[in-house]
Specification:
Low-confidence stretches: none
Distance between the termini: 13 Å
Organism: Telmatobacter sp. DSM 110680
Number of domains: 1
Pfam families: AAA_28
CATH superfamily: P-loop containing nucleotide triphosphate hydrolases
Protein name: AAA family ATPase
Order of helices and strands: EHEHHEHHEHEH
InterPro entries: NadR/Ttd14_AAA_dom, P-loop_NTPase
Domain NadR/Ttd14 AAA: 3-169
Radius of gyration: 15 Å
Strand content: 5-15%
Strand order of the largest sheet: 2-3-1-4-5
């Protein structure tokens, strides 16, 4: 099975791309951070990203989803983010890389979980705030740079998907995966 990561800054269009790939019949694995944020906010924590435990909660859910998805018999899977994104998020938030996250980063490297090519979805030139996405466009640019540097540090090759309409972006991804 080939597992490809889609990553990029918040609001870059990853979710729309993942949804279209799913509609086109591909297996997809959902992003974890948005679900962690929604669950925490439902429990009354308005800004869960201010708590150190936030990073490990994301890494744990990502790991669980990746392991569950590994039982599927699909030739290609697309993952909306992975633990490398969580490491970038920790850096962005000024948090240390926890021992759990470090272990997860080592596991995905040791087991070659993901393809070395990562689809890096570039920002669209604007940001639309949501309950889970409370970030300015300027901050998304900083976050995008941290993501890019983190993936390169971990040895991944970035396949840049620039701003374009949804069909064009999905077409580039499909052509690259063969």
């Amino acid at each position: 099975m080939k597992r490809f990561i889609l990553t990029g800054a918040p609001g870059s269009g990853k979710t729309a791309i993942i949804r279209q790939l799913e509609l086109d019949g591909f297996s997809v694995v959902e992003e974890a951070a948005t679900d962690i944020i929604a669950a925490a906010q439902a429990r009354g924590t308005a800004q869960p990203w201010t708590h150190l435990s936030f990073i490990d909660q994301i890494a744990g859910l990502q790991r669980d989803r990746q392991i569950r998805a590994s039982y599927q018999q699909d030739e290609i899977q697309f993952h909306d983010r992975c633990a490398v994104c969580t490491a970038a998020l920790a850096l962005y938030l000024g948090f240390p890389i926890s021992s759990f996250l470090a272990g997860e980063l080592e596991r995905i490297k040791r087991e070659s979980i993901y393809q070395p090519q990562v689809f890096f979805i570039r920002n669209l030139g604007f940001i639309t705030p949501t309950e889970a996405r409370r970030i300015s466009f300027e901050e998304t640019l900083r976050f995008e740079k941290i993501h890019e540097e983190t993936y390169r540090k971990f040895g991944f090759d970035l396949v840049e998907i620039g701003p374009a309409n949804l069909a064009e972006r999905v077409s580039i991804i499909k052509a690259t995966t063969g």
